[in-house]
Amino acid sequence: MLASRLRRLAVAATAVLVLPAVSVRAADAPKDIVDTAVAAGNFTTLAKALQAAGLVETLKGPGPFTVFAPTDAAFAKLPAGTVEALLKDKAKLTAVLTYHVVAGKVMAADVVKVKEAKTLQGQSVTVDATKGVKIDGATVVKADIACSNGVIHVIDSVLLPKS
Questions:
Q1: Are 92 and 55 within 8 A, CB to CB?
Q2: Mean pLDDT across the chain, nearest whole number?
Q3: Same domain, 76 and 39
Q4: What pTM was computed for the model?
Q5: How confident is the model at residue 157 (pLDDT cuts 50, 70, 90)?
Q6: Structural domain span for residue 106
Q7: Are 135 and 86 in the same domain?
Q8: For 49-100, what is each residue's pLDDT tens digit?
Q9: 46 and 20 both lie in a single domain
Q10: Which of 162, 140, 136, 137 has the alpha carbon at shortest distance from 153?
Q11: Using the 8-state DSSP alphabet, how is residue 48 labeled?
Q12: Please, where are the H alpha helices in the chain?
C-alpha cells in the first residue's frame, strides 16, 4: 500500500515538473503569420480582410511567406468607403491582399539588396532602400517580425496593385 502511494506521488511530482516545461515551450514557439498579426492588436482591419478574402488558411499554411502588413492606421488613410467596397468585392480584395505577400522568407537584410519583388498577386512591388525602406512608397516601420511560416514587415500604407 505504501509502495503504491509512493508511485502515485512520484508520478504526480513528475507531471508537476514536466507539464509546465511543455506549456512554456509551446507558448515560446513562434506563431504563424495570421496569429502573430492578430496578437499584435493593430492589424484588425487586415485580419478582417484576410477572413473576407478567404486567405486565412493560406497564410496559416507552411509558406514561407513575406508579408508587408499595413496597420489599422494605414487602412484608415485610404479614401472613405474604400475598405468597405473592397470587403464587398472578393476578387479585388484578394488582389490587393496578395499584392502584400511575397513567396519566401525575405528578411530586411535581403530586402535592401533588391529593387523589386514579385508578389503572389503576380505584379512586382518596387523596393527603395535609399532612406529607410519603402515598398511601393509605403515605409517599413517595423521589420523582421519572425513567424513560424515566414516574416512580417509592418508598413504605414496599403499597397494597391497597378490597374
A1: no
A2: 84
A3: yes
A4: 0.81
A5: very high
A6: 31-155
A7: yes
A8: 999 999 999 999 998 999 999 999 999 999 999 999 999 999 999 999 999 9
A9: no
A10: 140
A11: H
A12: 2-28, 33-40, 44-53, 56-60, 72-76, 82-88, 90-98, 108-111
